[in-house]
Amino acid sequence: MREGLIVALDTDDIEYIDWLSGTLVDIVPWIKIGFQAFSTLETEAFPWFRERGHKIFIDLKFHDIPNTVARDVGTMTKNGVHMINMHAAGGLEMMQAARESAEKVAAEKDVPMPILLGVTVLTSIDENSFQQDFGSERQLTKQVVYLAQLAQEAGLGGVVASPLEIEAVRKACGDDFVIVTPGIRPTWASRGDQRRITTPAEAIRRGTDYIVVGRPIIEAGNPLAAAEMILEEMRGA
Ligand code: C5P
Asked: Is ligand 1 within 6 A of the CB of residue 230?
């Protein structure tokens, strides 16, 4: 269960990142680096976090033509990150190119093959905005499953989805397909812009592999205590 929590270091404040990761590393090995932390730390972030004992999920949500994303993913693989994501909406060819690039670089540089994830539908989007903004005739959960199957066909290791779609993705893609779920809100935390949410316990009961938590931990008065409460809730589920 210790493996199942990923903390999103959504800040560009290097001193806070330093303090937060150093404080959390013994109880939460996984950290997620988004654009804010990456803009501050650049690729120095990777050896820096690894030496501390962190596992790194680089969340830059690549979405571009196949050649560009293949190179982006190759660069991240070379740097020894453990998890990389891209928008599944970039298409089958883009995801296949990304996977082939990661495999090639991992073999050539003798670094581990990262877990490659396709982002399905952002957890801040609800059924209404999905229909309106995308003019989609497909129901949101069906779109998530559709993109998850596309990611699996491309040879990716898993997807990012909301905890509300875990069962549907499991049914379609099987037990070995990794499901990472943001959209996690303990009952004591405010929802913010997230829409398709559950508590940590509910996500575990539904069968998530990893939950991603940002603001409920990084904006807490006591981030260590907040992370411990979430881990406790996960263990009790
Ligand atoms: O602060 P909060 O717990 O909402 O943070 C969730 C994190 O997960 C953010 O870093 C956000 O960018 C990321 N994320 C997400 N929904 C996705 C993919 C990533 O919320 N579909």
From this structure: no
* Ligand 1: centre distance to CA 198 (Å): 13
Atom 19 in ligand 1: residue holding the nearest Cα:
182
Q: What would the pLDDT profile of 61-95 be if each residue is shown by its tens digit?
A: 999 999 999 999 999 999 999 999 999 999 999 99
Is the separation of the CB atoms in 223 and 188 below 8 Å? no
Nearest CA to 148 among 89, 77, 102, 98?
89
Residues 6+ apart with CB under 8 A from 97: 66, 67, 69, 70
Tell how far the Cα of 109 is from the centroid of ligand 1, in angstroms: 30
Q: Is 61 considered catalytic here?
A: yes
Return the ligand 1 atom nearest residue 218 CA: 1
Which residue's entry shows tokens 């499953």? 145
Going along the chain from its start, the domains and CATH numbers come out as 2-236 (3.20.20.70)
Q: Which of 32, 55, 61, 104 is catalytic?
A: 61
Q: How confident is the model over 129-156, as pLDDT tens digits?
A: 999 999 988 999 999 999 999 999 999 9
